[in-house]
Amino acid sequence: MSNFQNHTCPLCSQSNTSLYHQDKVRSYLSCETCNLVFVPTAQHISTSRENAYYDLHDNQPDDSGYRDFLERLFIPLNQRLAPNSRGLDFGSGPGPTLSIMFEEAGHSVAIYDPYYASDIDVLSAQYDFITMSEVIEHLAEPGKEMDRLWNCLNSGGWLGIMTKRIKDQEAFKSWHYITDPTHISYFSEATFGWLLNHFSIKGAQATLTITGNDVVLIKKG
Predict the structure, then answer these.
(1) How far apart are CA 28 and CA 188, in angstroms?
(2) Which one of 30, 124, 152, 169 counts the least CB within 10 Å of its CB?
(3) Dihedrals phi, psi of 162, to nearest 5 degrees
(4) Which of 172, 175, 188, 154 is nearest to 11 (CA)?
(5) What is the pLDDT of residues 13-57, one digit of tens each?
Protein backbone atom coordinates (compact mmCIF):
# COMPACT_ATOMS: atom_id res chain seq x y z
CA MET A 1 0.00 0.00 0.00
CA SER A 2 0.97 3.68 -0.06
CA ASN A 3 3.48 5.54 2.10
CA PHE A 4 2.11 5.74 5.64
CA GLN A 5 4.24 8.63 6.84
CA ASN A 6 2.87 12.16 7.12
CA HIS A 7 -0.75 11.15 7.58
CA THR A 8 -2.49 13.61 9.88
CA CYS A 9 -3.45 12.06 13.22
CA PRO A 10 -7.21 12.42 13.82
CA LEU A 11 -6.64 13.02 17.54
CA CYS A 12 -3.73 15.46 17.87
CA SER A 13 -3.53 16.68 14.23
CA GLN A 14 0.20 16.01 14.01
CA SER A 15 1.74 14.30 10.97
CA ASN A 16 4.50 12.13 12.46
CA THR A 17 2.83 8.78 11.84
CA SER A 18 4.11 5.38 10.78
CA LEU A 19 2.77 1.92 10.00
CA TYR A 20 1.92 0.04 13.20
CA HIS A 21 0.30 -3.08 11.76
CA GLN A 22 -1.21 -4.31 8.52
CA ASP A 23 -3.53 -7.23 7.85
CA LYS A 24 -5.36 -8.47 4.77
CA VAL A 25 -8.12 -5.91 5.21
CA ARG A 26 -6.67 -2.69 6.60
CA SER A 27 -3.63 -0.76 7.72
CA TYR A 28 -3.16 0.70 11.18
CA LEU A 29 -1.03 3.79 11.72
CA SER A 30 0.57 4.98 14.94
CA CYS A 31 1.06 8.62 15.93
CA GLU A 32 4.38 9.38 17.62
CA THR A 33 2.90 12.41 19.41
CA CYS A 34 -0.24 11.01 21.12
CA ASN A 35 0.23 7.26 20.52
CA LEU A 36 -3.19 6.88 18.92
CA VAL A 37 -3.40 3.96 16.51
CA PHE A 38 -5.87 4.60 13.72
CA VAL A 39 -7.12 3.34 10.38
CA PRO A 40 -6.48 5.83 7.55
CA THR A 41 -9.58 7.57 6.22
CA ALA A 42 -9.37 5.96 2.79
CA GLN A 43 -9.93 2.56 4.42
CA HIS A 44 -13.03 3.48 6.44
CA ILE A 45 -16.27 1.76 5.47
CA SER A 46 -19.13 3.90 4.17
CA THR A 47 -21.66 5.45 6.55
CA SER A 48 -24.40 3.26 5.05
CA ARG A 49 -22.39 0.09 5.76
CA GLU A 50 -21.58 1.37 9.22
CA ASN A 51 -25.23 2.05 9.98
CA ALA A 52 -26.22 -1.39 8.70
CA TYR A 53 -23.59 -2.95 10.96
CA TYR A 54 -24.94 -1.12 14.01
CA ASP A 55 -28.49 -2.21 13.12
CA LEU A 56 -27.37 -5.77 13.82
CA HIS A 57 -26.77 -4.91 17.48
CA ASP A 58 -29.54 -6.16 19.75
CA ASN A 59 -28.78 -4.42 23.03
CA GLN A 60 -31.91 -3.58 25.01
CA PRO A 61 -32.60 -2.11 28.48
CA ASP A 62 -34.24 -5.32 29.71
CA ASP A 63 -31.19 -7.44 28.82
CA SER A 64 -29.57 -8.27 32.17
CA GLY A 65 -26.35 -9.37 30.49
CA TYR A 66 -26.03 -6.04 28.72
CA ARG A 67 -26.70 -4.19 31.97
CA ASP A 68 -24.00 -6.23 33.69
CA PHE A 69 -21.60 -5.20 30.93
CA LEU A 70 -22.47 -1.51 31.28
CA GLU A 71 -22.09 -1.63 35.07
CA ARG A 72 -18.32 -1.60 34.55
CA LEU A 73 -18.75 2.07 33.62
CA PHE A 74 -21.96 2.86 35.49
CA ILE A 75 -20.88 1.84 39.00
CA PRO A 76 -17.58 3.76 39.34
CA LEU A 77 -19.00 6.85 37.62
CA ASN A 78 -22.26 6.89 39.59
CA GLN A 79 -20.29 6.66 42.84
CA ARG A 80 -18.65 9.99 41.97
CA LEU A 81 -21.78 11.92 40.97
CA ALA A 82 -23.75 14.34 43.11
CA PRO A 83 -27.49 13.56 43.44
CA ASN A 84 -29.67 14.73 40.56
CA SER A 85 -26.77 15.29 38.17
CA ARG A 86 -27.37 16.05 34.53
CA GLY A 87 -25.70 13.81 31.97
CA LEU A 88 -25.28 13.03 28.30
CA ASP A 89 -24.86 9.56 26.83
CA PHE A 90 -22.88 10.21 23.65
CA GLY A 91 -23.24 7.38 21.14
CA SER A 92 -26.29 5.85 22.79
CA GLY A 93 -26.87 3.29 20.02
CA PRO A 94 -30.09 1.66 18.79
CA GLY A 95 -31.17 0.55 22.28
CA PRO A 96 -30.24 3.24 24.83
CA THR A 97 -29.63 1.56 28.17
CA LEU A 98 -26.86 3.32 30.06
CA SER A 99 -28.94 6.50 30.11
CA ILE A 100 -31.83 4.57 31.68
CA MET A 101 -29.53 3.13 34.33
CA PHE A 102 -28.42 6.61 35.36
CA GLU A 103 -32.02 7.86 35.32
CA GLU A 104 -32.98 4.97 37.61
CA ALA A 105 -30.25 6.25 39.95
CA GLY A 106 -31.92 9.67 40.08
CA HIS A 107 -30.10 11.59 37.36
CA SER A 108 -31.42 13.18 34.16
CA VAL A 109 -29.76 12.10 30.92
CA ALA A 110 -29.90 13.33 27.34
CA ILE A 111 -28.82 11.03 24.52
CA TYR A 112 -27.03 11.58 21.24
CA ASP A 113 -26.21 9.20 18.43
CA PRO A 114 -25.52 10.20 14.81
CA TYR A 115 -27.75 7.38 13.54
CA TYR A 116 -30.40 6.85 16.21
CA ALA A 117 -30.74 10.09 18.21
CA SER A 118 -29.34 12.82 16.01
CA ASP A 119 -30.66 15.96 17.71
CA ILE A 120 -27.45 17.97 17.61
CA ASP A 121 -28.91 20.62 19.95
CA VAL A 122 -28.02 18.42 22.92
CA LEU A 123 -24.35 19.03 22.08
CA SER A 124 -24.81 22.73 22.86
CA ALA A 125 -25.88 22.16 26.47
CA GLN A 126 -23.78 21.74 29.63
CA TYR A 127 -23.56 18.54 31.64
CA ASP A 128 -22.25 17.22 34.95
CA PHE A 129 -21.21 13.96 33.32
CA ILE A 130 -20.84 12.54 29.82
CA THR A 131 -20.59 8.85 28.99
CA MET A 132 -19.07 7.15 25.96
CA SER A 133 -19.62 3.41 26.17
CA GLU A 134 -17.85 1.53 23.35
CA VAL A 135 -17.92 4.72 21.26
CA ILE A 136 -14.49 6.31 21.09
CA GLU A 137 -13.06 3.51 18.95
CA HIS A 138 -15.65 4.32 16.26
CA LEU A 139 -14.75 8.01 15.91
CA ALA A 140 -13.25 9.17 12.63
CA GLU A 141 -12.36 12.53 14.20
CA PRO A 142 -11.72 11.79 17.88
CA GLY A 143 -9.87 15.06 18.45
CA LYS A 144 -12.77 17.17 17.24
CA GLU A 145 -15.38 15.14 19.13
CA MET A 146 -13.45 14.98 22.39
CA ASP A 147 -12.87 18.75 22.37
CA ARG A 148 -16.57 19.34 21.75
CA LEU A 149 -17.60 17.07 24.62
CA TRP A 150 -15.02 18.59 26.97
CA ASN A 151 -16.51 22.00 26.27
CA CYS A 152 -19.97 20.60 27.16
CA LEU A 153 -18.74 19.44 30.56
CA ASN A 154 -19.25 21.59 33.64
CA SER A 155 -16.33 22.32 35.94
CA GLY A 156 -16.05 19.40 38.34
CA GLY A 157 -17.80 17.15 35.84
CA TRP A 158 -16.83 13.66 34.71
CA LEU A 159 -16.18 12.11 31.32
CA GLY A 160 -16.66 8.34 31.51
CA ILE A 161 -15.19 6.26 28.69
CA MET A 162 -15.42 2.54 28.06
CA THR A 163 -13.11 1.17 25.37
CA LYS A 164 -10.56 -1.63 25.16
CA ARG A 165 -7.01 -0.30 25.45
CA ILE A 166 -3.96 -1.28 23.42
CA LYS A 167 -1.51 -3.39 25.40
CA ASP A 168 1.43 -3.58 23.01
CA GLN A 169 2.22 -3.97 19.32
CA GLU A 170 2.56 -7.76 19.42
CA ALA A 171 -0.80 -8.27 21.14
CA PHE A 172 -2.41 -5.87 18.67
CA LYS A 173 -1.75 -8.27 15.77
CA SER A 174 -4.16 -10.89 17.10
CA TRP A 175 -6.52 -8.55 18.98
CA HIS A 176 -10.21 -9.26 18.38
CA TYR A 177 -10.94 -5.53 18.60
CA ILE A 178 -9.39 -4.82 15.21
CA THR A 179 -11.64 -7.32 13.40
CA ASP A 180 -14.66 -5.02 13.79
CA PRO A 181 -14.83 -2.93 10.58
CA THR A 182 -16.36 0.01 12.48
CA HIS A 183 -13.42 0.25 14.90
CA ILE A 184 -10.98 2.84 13.56
CA SER A 185 -9.38 4.58 16.58
CA TYR A 186 -7.49 2.71 19.28
CA PHE A 187 -6.36 4.22 22.58
CA SER A 188 -3.66 3.13 25.01
CA GLU A 189 -2.88 4.45 28.49
CA ALA A 190 -0.28 6.69 26.86
CA THR A 191 -2.96 8.12 24.54
CA PHE A 192 -5.20 8.92 27.48
CA GLY A 193 -2.19 10.55 29.15
CA TRP A 194 -1.77 12.81 26.12
CA LEU A 195 -5.51 13.59 26.16
CA LEU A 196 -5.28 14.54 29.83
CA ASN A 197 -2.52 17.05 29.12
CA HIS A 198 -4.42 18.37 26.10
CA PHE A 199 -7.53 19.00 28.18
CA SER A 200 -5.52 20.62 30.99
CA ILE A 201 -3.85 23.05 28.58
CA LYS A 202 -7.32 24.23 27.57
CA GLY A 203 -7.74 25.78 31.01
CA ALA A 204 -9.35 23.29 33.40
CA GLN A 205 -7.05 20.79 35.10
CA ALA A 206 -7.94 17.23 34.07
CA THR A 207 -7.33 14.16 36.22
CA LEU A 208 -7.47 10.54 35.08
CA THR A 209 -8.80 7.54 36.99
CA ILE A 210 -8.43 4.06 35.48
CA THR A 211 -11.02 1.74 37.00
CA GLY A 212 -10.57 -1.40 34.92
CA ASN A 213 -9.22 -2.91 31.72
CA ASP A 214 -11.64 -0.91 29.60
CA VAL A 215 -12.89 2.01 31.71
CA VAL A 216 -11.35 5.42 32.36
CA LEU A 217 -12.85 8.43 34.13
CA ILE A 218 -11.60 11.96 33.46
CA LYS A 219 -12.53 14.76 35.84
CA LYS A 220 -12.65 18.38 34.68
CA GLY A 221 -11.22 20.78 37.23
Answers:
(1) 14
(2) 124
(3) -115, 120
(4) 188
(5) 999 999 999 999 999 999 999 999 999 999 999 999 999 999 887
**Per CATH, domain 17-220 is 3.40.50.150:** yes
Is 175 within 8 Å of 23 (Cβ atoms)?
A: no
**How far is residue 62's CA from residue 181's CA, in Å, rounded to a whole number?**
27
Tell me the C-alpha distance between 18 and 94, whole Å: 35
Whose CA is closest to 136, among 145, 127, 128?
Answer: 145
Q: What angle do CA 200, 156, 142 make, to 5 degrees?
A: 50
Three-class HEC string of 156-215: EEEEEEECCCCCCHHHHCCCHHHHCCCCCEECCHHHHHHHHHHHHHCCCCEEEEECCCCE
pLDDT in tens, 24-35: 999 999 999 999
Place 86 in a pLDDT band, splitting at 50, 70 and 90: very high
CA distance 201 to 181: 33
